[in-house]
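Anyone have tokens for histidine kinase? Sequence:
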Amino acid sequence: IKLNFTPVLRASREAIGLILVLQDVTEEEKLDRQRKEFVANVSHELRTPLTTIKSYLEALDEGGALEEPELASRFLGVTRQEAERMTRLINDLLQLSRLDSKKVRFHKQPLKPIEVLEAAADRFRFQCQQKNIDFHLSLKEDLPRIYAARDQIDQVLDNLLSNAVKYTPEGHSVSLSARQKADGFVEVAISDTGIGIPQKDLERIFERFYRVDKARSRSMGGTGLGLAIAREIVQAHGGTIRMESRYREGTTVRITLPPCEPEVTSS
Ligand code: ADP
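Reply: yep, here.
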């Protein structure tokens, strides 16, 4: 808390009172700390792949790996992967910054949840099959249309489904379902029976770069920004996003999206 005193003086400079201002700076300080942490995180996340790229290029250049085609090709593979990681990271950062500055144009329109969710399911069926993950899609027929931007909702679903697949071991399952809530909003749930998230990490999980296990996330190609982006998009629709999880048992993410106005729905 910041304290400020200002004496109240008569024209004769005689003090007749004191103005005391108490300012709660907790929120300000929190934002400032978060901003500093964010810059430190970005720098670290960009420096890590760069360091790897540099050391592999040096090994090629000075270590004689160029003379061994197999080794050279492996080293080049690593540098390409790391460059791709940087591209993903920068794309995610740019997207977050556009969302922050409200520069993203949302082309909201009435959408049928079934169409959106079936298309999302189609994008993930193959990946699930490859990893021997059971994939279930369960949708109610009578869902109302939602008022949402297709591209951005697709991205939210892709981020959440790819997490479900990434953090779920072989032989387990992932499901996608939707229902209408009492308040009219459509709730979409993405559930998995994967590794889960410890209780202590749950409240910070939507923060930028917050990850339960950095090494695991990195090895899966994660940037640590997927959930933060999903949250921004859902909130820009007037919806909510929540995560429930039990460590080593599984995770469910629920998003809610507003239905169309009644007159639009019935047209
Ligand atoms: P990342 O690119 O690391 O996956 P996200 O922002 O998408 O970044 O997720 C942040 C972290 O939340 C992940 O690193 C992981 O620790 C945890 N997480 C997200 N989804 C799941 C899930 N379905 N199961 C277990 N952990 C998850």
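The mean pLDDT is 93.
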